[in-house]
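re: ur msg from earlier - yeah i can do the adenosine-5'-diphosphate complex, just paste it... oh wait u already did. ok heres what im feeding in:
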Amino acid sequence: MAKIFSSSLGGSLFKDERFLYQEFVPERLPFRDEEISELVFCLKPASEGKRPTNVFVFGKPGTGKTVSLKFVLSELEEFSDRAKCLYINCFEYSSKQSIISKITNFLGYAVPSRGISYAELFSKFVAVLRTKKVLPVIVFDEAEQLLKSEETKSLLYDLARLPEQQKLSIGLAFISNDNFFLSQIDDRIRSSLQCSSIPFESYSPSELKEILRERAKYAFNEFALDEDVVPLCAAHAAKLGGDARIAIDVLLKAGRLASREGAKKVLVKHVRASFTQEKPVKVEVTSNLSEQERSILDLLKKKKSQDSGAIYDTLKDKFAERTLRAALAELEEKKLIVSEKEIKGRGFTRIVKLAGS
Ligand SMILES: Nc1ncnc2c1ncn2[C@@H]1O[C@H](COP(=O)(O)OP(=O)(O)O)[C@@H](O)[C@H]1O
Ligand SMILES: [Mg+2]
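and the outut:
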């Protein structure tokens, strides 16, 4: 048998690369103490079976929203038998049926996968919840997906009204890259939810460095990293908007490249080579763009940087400002552009650039 895998395993650089995986939840999250204590404050009543304050967590990609909530949830479950926490990614669970089935299953009642209407499912869920002594805390990650259809919006409405209509307690947390998630919800749902908003700011280059050092301590052996490696990964991620995910990912890729070469240390050249590895992904993303997203990119290729007002103005004959604003948000999420807030006159404007330019 060809041993094609046996030679690529070795290397003494990594202690355990799994500490650099996206889904790994570290025990320490530098620079998120305040956000975490705010989350604890809001959710703590659940540990005594009381109704927690619902929360809305928002900020740009890679600011530690998901990992902070996962961390808080696991601590909450460990601390108390009363709270039972469920994490739902709304990209994965995108219909109200699938979401309510997931929650009902989680409460310990196996719902049939077919032939049952939403209304039946929901009343089953209410009945099951009534028999339980637990207080469910449910996190909806990528929550803006819930606003894409009327049917998922109505699920939000149903959940928001549980306390009032059914005298049942439940804790809800919403995570979104879209700062305006709450303001897009109908007034009546928003007022039933009474969410506490917790902003997550982008990391600065020096914060990214420390985050990387902390993760690297567990992932790599001592002396495995050249001293310029972490600063370069941090600078790269800072340039792309302060995204810790990019920083960690680049470090993982650089480590793998260095291991493959049999290098004694991860060097700056490995980091640089891992930047170019990102490119194919971008090509794939670009082929899925909407017409308005493409127009914005074309404009930025010519102009380098533009303020958002000028973009709306240039493209106003083709697209409405609302459409363009949504397209800018999409492009930023896809990491194809970066934007910065600047003071202009009495208000703010956004300066938009192509990512990496
Ligand atoms: N303060 C931090 N310390 C350590 N790792 C972090 C920190 N913030 C974010 N990360 C890591 O960066 C990556 C992106 O974080 P994540 O929570 O998924 O971001 P978001 O949900 O805001 O897009 C994850 O791998 C996460 O573990
Ligand atoms: Mg996230």
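cool cool. The first strand starts at residue 55 and ends at 59. ping me if u need the other ligands too
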